[in-house]
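Same chain as my last thread, 132 residues:
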Amino acid sequence: MTTCKLTDFPSPVLDLELSKEQEREVKLTWTPGEDNNSPILKYYVLFEESISDPGRWHVLTHVPGNQPWAKLNLSPYGRYRFSVQAANSFGRGNQSESTDLYETSPAAPDVNPSEVKGEGNETDNMIITWKV
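reply #2:
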């Protein structure tokens, strides 16, 4: 008798949960989905920031496949949703459902801008540029 073991991309993770650690730091935890007979190598934590880039998901960080949580450092005055993708030797599986919206409070910048310049190209305007 021959035994056949099917392998595939990992299934989405479940039960995403956010807990506040500090003012701009949260801990995201999840329940691993099925590995589909190929061990989970990494989890990718994705975010959508609905003020500056709504509708686009970006990788924020990744953690080892045996760690179903991540600590996330966030910017002030942000509106975030998070999702997770598990990856095995086949690649990344589908994104999980997203978390509810998480908002950070406004705050002063962590560093002052440098090379601040003000120029006008018309008599009724001014263009201000800087580097962070």
